[in-house]
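Appendix C reproduces, verbatim, an entry submitted by the partner laboratory led by Prof. M.T., so that reviewers can inspect both the input and the predicted structure.
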Amino acid sequence: MSADPGWTARSGGSDGVTAAAGVPRHVAVCPETRRPSAARCLAHVQVDANGKPLATTTPTGYGPSDIQSAYGLAGVSTGVAPIVAIVDAYDDPTAESDLAAYRSYFGLPACTTANGCFQKVNQSGVAGSYPSTDPQSEWAVEISLDLDAVSAACPSCKILLVETNSDDLSDLGAGDNAAAKLGAAAVSNSYGGSEDSTNAQSSLSYYDHPGVLVTASAGDGAYGVEFPASSQYVLGVGGTSLAKASNARGWSETVWFTQAGEGTGSGCSAYTPKPSWQTDTGCSHKTVADVSAVADPYTGIAVYDTQSPYSGWTVIGGTSLASPLVAAIFAATGRASGGPSFPYSNPSDFWDVTSGSNGTCSPSYLCTAGPGYDGPTGMGTPNAAAMSGSSAPPVDGGSPPPVDGGMGSPTVTLVSPANGATLAGNATISLVADVTSSVGIADVVLEWVQPSGTVAVDCASPPSGTTCTHTTAGQYTWSFAATTGTRSWSVVAKDTAGNSTTSATNTLTLASGSSETPVVTILQPAAGTAYPPGGTVPVVVTASALYGVSQVWLTWSGPAGSTQLQLSALGGDEWGLDVPFSASAVAGTRTLTVTAYDPYDVAGSAVTTIRVE
């Protein structure tokens, strides 16, 4: 730290809890969600014995040199000044002047509107016509925390502050769209709200920005999940306690956990499909977190803010700190375009956090740190030197990672049909797999096992009667006619560095075609219809089966991968759903696959395509 207060113990930290002698308490800056549709900021500030922000005339928390040392940022540069955006609710009228005071104290280059480094806009992306200030005086200090965190990790980054009309998730999501449209390399969201069944559509509308890294805080209520960190398009950022150490790195980290109900969030999403790059088995949906960084308020950073009730320097943590730090580190190393899959294909670029827990759960890795992936800290904390391709000391004096050019092997996940599924035989079927690699894919082969033996179907040169297509995001689809019987299939991917990965093996039953197979007809949208970015696609189908239709699902596939959404019964044989998508959606083709299931899980599908232009 810039100055060591000599803390020797810590205890409590929430309202009504008395800290040990000499240890400041801390409280949540945004203690509660104001409305069901709203989010709250996830910052925690140190307070005095009266519960007031513990303001000082000089900084006492970690400063830029500490953050840069802890995360290997010294000397890291891409030679450009990427834009890091922060999205927050309400207006902070002194945001720029408070930022100037912070950067001046620590000797960082000026970042102002005048020199083009700092830009402040509303949720429509317009400079001016800013929202009102927060009636509860909470979000302004969150803005200062975010600005100072980005400055500490990446002094050369440009900063875009997007102020939204309110703390409603729809307003905050609109802020993300504005940030992506204005050219941000990374967008940080230091807030969270409850998960619900609308999250899948919200993810498509606000957080699906291919080529732009979107980060979000994992939460501050200990074990449990919040949105948008649980979105498959978002890099969910957990929290650690950071301390200087006598190891090779010079620092050590453990899971941030103060007491029951207070610590970094983690766990299983109840609604978001599991992205292809996550291979842990304890969650059928997305697992939170993906990565982590310092969040413990007792090891927080120095923040300068002059908005009431703050008056100078304070020490602030929470996963609100971790999210902008990670966004800035990804931008500084040129890795923001790698998106949320990057840590999974480059595990050696992250410090593995192996100790600490944020609660009780089963399986235990969802709430307890250990070697490799775990819920509270994800793939670990960023090692910027390794991320940028520089050399870096091994963690805790251990052995260096294997030499593989800094890149991992391809990731291969079988998407559909599910293992053990039953499809109609004597018909055309489609097999879908997600394949990703940080260095590029050289070859992808389907291995189809039938009674006469194994057939290898290279996507680059499929045999007559078979098609293989793939999206830029790496989703591969093979379509061909299949007879009846039991089959199995797997996918082998080779990257441009020569690394090879073979997926798990799925089995499926191809039943004789009969009236038991659901019949699906897509009424809307018409094939080839064009929609503008930010539009809404009405999906209406008819689905019928001998024993009735129990559920109907839409698989939406595009450049950013696939998302599954459940259709609602409209009456009779009709099912439907209105699907909004992002205002910054990439132009091109989208594939819509609608699958109906009868009560015995026999499935029938129909496919159409639309265009975004």
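The first strand starts at residue 25 and ends at 28. Additional entries are available on request from the coordinating office.
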